[in-house]
Amino acid sequence: MNKERLEELLEIMDLRTFLQMVDLPDNFSIGFDAADVKSVDSARIYKAVPLELDANEVAEKLLKRESVSTKVYAEGPQFETGDNS
């Protein structure tokens, strides 16, 4: 949605109605009380994109101990590390 279209929509409907018609990606939400918004003087559009990271490289940089097992889940890999003993 471009800036002009956003301005048109906000002129003809209230914020609560506008937010109900916005199509958000799965597992993404915006939380605030629309009743607290008295007027909208300006708006910005931000685009968020997922980062593609190499799981093994991230584990190598972040894990303090050696990985003893790895499990693959829908959310991504899980690394189990050794304990202090």
Structure description:
The chain has 85 residues and is an alpha+beta fold. Helix content is 29%, strand content 15%. It is elongated, with a radius of gyration of 22 Å. The protein starts with a helix and ends with a strand.
Characterize this entry briefly.
By secondary structure, the protein is of the alpha+beta class. It has helices at 3-12, 15-21, 55-62; strands at residues 67-73, 76-81. It contains 3 helices and 2 strands.
Given the C-alpha coordinates, what overall shape results? elongated
The helix-and-strand class reads alpha+beta
The radius of gyration over CA amounts to: 22 Å
Following the backbone from N to C, one meets helices and strands in this order, namely HHHEE
What number is the mean pLDDT? Answer: 79
Please state how the strands of the largest beta sheet are arranged side by side: 1-2
* Biggest sheet layout: 2 strands, antiparallel
The count of DSSP E runs of length 2 or more, i.e. the number of strands, is 2
Q: Helical percent range?
A: 25-40%
Distance from N terminus to C terminus (CA atoms, Å) equals: 56 Å
Unreliable residue stretches: none
Amount of beta strand: 15-25%
Per DSSP, the total helix count is 3
Descriptive key words:
3 helices; two-stranded antiparallel sheet; 85 residues; alpha+beta
Which secondary structure elements does this structure contain, and how are they paired or packed?
Blueprint: H1 3-12, H2 15-21, H3 55-62, E1 67-73, E2 76-81
Antiparallel strand pairs: 1-2
